[in-house]
């Protein structure tokens, strides 16, 4: 049990469960599988999955021979399914239906859909029913994704390093592609298809133009071929200055006809190699990347340049809104909105603007990004981070389901109550058909893919929520625990408690009460709230917490940066109110005196220290909880997780001690009674150097 199998772990179910299922799974019928790679893929997954879970593979046959058949077919590929007249109309291109049926007097199950892709998702859902020990005796399930583009974003470089990747090297062996096709590529596609992911951006948003050269396009095409039967399209991050760097032009100005021709030619070349190429992801005029503003053009003009080149073949441009400018005195949290919202209505219809969940940058907790809801005429897609750049990398356990849920369920009030972020992202709020959600992948060459077993849950929950953003973090965690470990009730109870407590614990020991961006220089791992000497103001933790003798927090009300005004009126009013905003985001929006009374009855200083302590206590508790499960888990995964939890408990204390020591030196306050003294002096923490923190 090294974790390689992810949620495709088809270890035998408990004996009793196996015996219940077996009579229902005697025969598998998949008409047309010889002619179709996609159907063949489904057939082999079902044989493998059922065979493993029940320790008996179903017979693959052409005709129904008795009770216990599973028929996987579209109405077109099977007259038997056609005759059932099942309600497939509203299920679109990727939806499916799983239903118990009686055909010619025999009892069985039909998995059907309008397309082979639908059958694929139906097949994986069916396997999930078995993995989660759900009865299939009278099933009637239909499923359909709410969001169109469900993508992973790999921040993988051509030299196999991964930006903010903490699980080894890139899984793409660029050098040996296209000749060598690592079986991992197929397993990657299986794992993604199983959770409904239908696209992948192969390379880093800080892109090298080389990705668009013929040599590298051939490599991308080889991957696209592996992924195709699994319904996964390939996308590329495009460097805006590519026409200059690899095209020999003197400009990349969107208004230049030669530049336009260059992109059209490039798009044609890509589509010759990858007929179902998905499109481009672009980071432009952000953190030193080239972009249209270099030529005095807007983000919309830049996006439309690429969009027009892709349009004839149905490709899309995902244009990122993660921008903040050097020397711009405006609150960093406001800059993306200021740049993009005035452009609403100027983007072509195959452009979608990709917005991070919060206005700064993947912090342990941020309010939802004010752009959600603010651009009625432009489709916006969500960008979540799965890799935990600011939440303890791969080392700490932080289940991100609650964070995704918190953001998706947040109400923007853009069109009155109920205008949730989900409704922006699924297109229903403003009637957009182009919809998407992206997760920055936490995948690498480590045997367990994500650096730890629990990190796999973040990839898993991202996919499940991308398919259905109404799922709760809790139900997905429960499924994941069952699939990953077992159905044991103790394991499920304690595992669930651990997962659901973990993200808030990280918030508490790193950035409690709405603080953000407090990490040390050179990496995003350890504490450095004292840092105030970096070239750009908004790179410094001191810029974010603004702590001094009198108080702490970033005033984003009308008296301060007025970032609250970027939200719809009811949200703005809530965020602007000290008592209304809630303690979890208090210091994100308010600068308050240390003796400000918070909801708990403590003063602000007391609450800050209390939350740091609480985070440390939860991290220690995670260790104890895990140890109580030793008998329920295989030694290999148990041991690795136990060791990582020890790292987390130690580092939670480091975060807490360093931060409390620093804020105490600033506030001049005494530690509240009952809270522990930091183990070392502030100077000690300030002198720590971590030049080799992973992925810095
Ligand atoms: C920040 C990362 C940086 C990324 C950037 C981005 O620190 O490595 O390039 O986001 O999203 O979080 O473009």
Key terms:
xylan degradation; 696 residues; eight-stranded parallel beta barrel; Chitobiase, domain 2; Alpha-d-glucuronidase, C-terminal Domain; six-stranded mixed β-sheet; Glyco_hydro_67_C; binds beta-D-glucopyranuronic acid; EC 3.2.1.131; globular; TIM Barrel; 10% strand; 21 helices; alpha/beta; 3 domains; carbohydrate metabolism; 16 strands
Overall number of domains: 3
* Poorly predicted spans: none
CATH architecture descriptor text of the largest domain: Alpha-Beta Barrel
Largest sheet, if any?
8 strands, parallel, barrel
Q: Which topology of the largest domain does CATH recognise?
A: TIM Barrel
> Based on CA inertia axes, which overall geometry fits?
globular
Spatial order of the strands in the main sheet? 7-8-9-10-11-12-13-14
CATH class of the largest domain: Alpha Beta
What Rg do the Cα atoms give? Answer: 26 Å
- Roughly what is the average pLDDT, rounded to an integer? 97
N-C termini distance: 30 Å
Domain Glycosyl hydrolase family 67 C-terminal: 451-674
Enzyme class: hydrolase
GO molecular function: hydrolase activity
Catalytic activity: Hydrolysis of (1->2)-alpha-D-(4-O-methyl)glucuronosyl links in the main chain of hardwood xylans
Describe this structure in words.
- The chain has helices at residues 15-21, 37-54, 79-84, 116-131, 183-194, 214-227, 242-245, 257-273, 299-310, 332-340, 401-409, 421-425, 453-467, 473-484, 489-510, 541-545, 569-576, 586-589, 604-627, 635-667, 682-687, and strands spanning 27-29, 59-60, 69-72, 96-103, 106-113, 140-143, 149-153, 199-201, 233-237, 279-282, 316-320, 351-356, 380-385, 436-440, 551-552, 592-593.
- By secondary structure, the protein is an alpha/beta fold.
- It folds into 3 domains: 7-143, 2-Layer Sandwich (Chitobiase, domain 2); 149-484, TIM Barrel; 507-554 and 591-687, Alpha-d-glucuronidase, C-terminal Domain (Alpha-Beta Complex).
- The strands form 3 sheets. It has an 8-stranded parallel barrel with strand order 7-8-9-10-11-12-13-14. A 6-stranded mixed beta sheet has the order 2-1-3-5-4-6. It has a two-stranded antiparallel ribbon with strand order 15-16.
- Strand 8, helix 6 (214-227) and strand 9 (233-237) form a beta-alpha-beta unit.
- The model has no long low-confidence stretch (mean pLDDT 97).
- Bound molecules: beta-D-glucopyranuronic acid.
- Residues 163-164, 205-206, 283, 322, 361-362, 389 line the site of beta-D-glucopyranuronic acid (BDP).
- Residues 451-674 form the Glycosyl hydrolase family 67 C-terminal domain.
- Homodimer.
- Residues 130-449 form the Glycosyl hydrolase family 67 catalytic domain.
């Amino acid at each position: 049990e090294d974790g390689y199998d992810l949620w495709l772990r088809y270890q035998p179910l408990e004996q009793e469960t196996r015996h219940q299922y077996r009579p229902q799974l005697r025969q598998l019928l998949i008409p047309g599988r010889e002619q179709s790679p996609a159907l063949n893929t489904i057939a082999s997954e079902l044989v493998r999955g059922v065979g493993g879970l029940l320790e008996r593979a179903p017979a693959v046959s052409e005709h129904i021979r008795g009770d216990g058949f599973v028929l996987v077919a579209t109405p077109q590929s099977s007259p038997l399914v056609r005759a059932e007249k099942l309600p497939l109309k509203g299920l679109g291109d990727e939806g499916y239906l799983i239903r118990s049926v009686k055909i010619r007097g025999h009892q069985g199950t039909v998995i059907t859909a309008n397309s082979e892709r639908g059958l694929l998702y139906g097949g994986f859902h069916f396997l999930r029913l078995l993995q989660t020990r759900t009865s299939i005796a009278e099933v009637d399930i239909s499923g359909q994704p709410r969001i169109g583009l469900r993508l992973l974003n790999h921040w993988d470089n051509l030299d196999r390093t991964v930006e903010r990747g903490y699980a080894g090297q890139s899984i793409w062996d660029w050098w040996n592609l296209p000749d060598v096709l690592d079986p991992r590529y197929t397993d990657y596609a299986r794992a993604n298809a199983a959770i409904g992911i239908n696209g992948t951006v192969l390379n880093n948003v800080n892109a090298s133009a080389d990705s668009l050269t013929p040599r590298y396009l051939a490599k991308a095409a080889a991957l696209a071929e592996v992924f195709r039967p699994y319904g996964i399209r390939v996308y590329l991050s495009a460097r805006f200055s590519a026409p200059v760097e690899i095209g020999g032009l003197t400009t990349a100005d969107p208004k230049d006809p030669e530049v336009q021709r260059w992109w059209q030619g490039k798009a044609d070349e890509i589509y010759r190699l990858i007929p179902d190429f998905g499109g481009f992801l672009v980071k432009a005029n952000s953190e030193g990347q080239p972009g249209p503003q270099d030529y005095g053009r807007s983000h919309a003009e830049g996006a439309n340049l690429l969009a027009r080149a892709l349009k004839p073949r149905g490709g899309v441009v995902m244009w990122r809104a993660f921008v903040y400018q050097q020397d711009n005195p405006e609150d960093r949290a406001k800059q993306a909105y200021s740049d993009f919202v005035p452009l609403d209505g100027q983007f072509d219809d195959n452009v979608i603007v990709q917005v991070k969940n919060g206005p700064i940058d993947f912090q342990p907790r941020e309010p939802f990004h004010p752009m959600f809801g603010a651009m009625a005429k432009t489709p916006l897609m969500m960008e979540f981070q799965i890799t935990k750049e600011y939440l303890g990398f791969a080392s700490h356990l932080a289940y991100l389901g609650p964070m995704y849920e918190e953001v998706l369920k947040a109400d923007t009030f853009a069109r009155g109550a109920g205008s949730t972020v989900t409704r922006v992202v699924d297109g229903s709020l403003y009637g957009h058909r182009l919809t998407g959600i992206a997760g920055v992948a936490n995948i690498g060459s480590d045997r367990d893919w994500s650096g730890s077993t629990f990190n796999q849950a973040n990839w898993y929950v991202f996919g499940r929520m991308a398919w259905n953003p109404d799922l709760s973090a809790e139900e997905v965690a429960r499924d994941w625990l069952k699939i990953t470990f077992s159905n044991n009730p103790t394991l499920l109870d304690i595992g669930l408690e651990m997962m659901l407590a973990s993200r808030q614990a990280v918030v508490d020991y790193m950035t409690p009460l709405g603080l953000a961006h407090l990490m040390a220089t050179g990496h995003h791992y350890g504490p450095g709230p004292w840092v105030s000497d970096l070239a750009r103001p908004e790179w410094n933790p001191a810029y974010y917490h603004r702590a001094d003798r009198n108080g702490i927090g970033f005033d984003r009300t009308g008296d301060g940066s007025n970032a609250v005004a970027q939200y719809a009126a009811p949200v703005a009013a809530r965020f602007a109110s000290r008592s209304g905003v809630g303690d979890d985001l208090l210091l994100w929006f308010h600068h308050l005196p240390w003796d400000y009374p918070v909801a708990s009855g403590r003063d602000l200083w007391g609450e800050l220290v209390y939350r740091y302590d609480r985070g440390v206590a939860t991290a220690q508790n995670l260790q104890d909880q895990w140890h109580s499960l030793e008998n329920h888990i295989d030694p290999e995964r148990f041991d690795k997780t136990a060791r990582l939890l020890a790292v987390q408990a130690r580092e939670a204390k480091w975060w807490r001690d360093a931060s409390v020591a620093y804020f105490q030196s600033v506030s001049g306050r005494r530690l509240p009674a009952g809270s522990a003294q930091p183990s070392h002096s502030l100077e000690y923490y300030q002198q720590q150097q971590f030049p080799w923190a992973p992925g810095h």
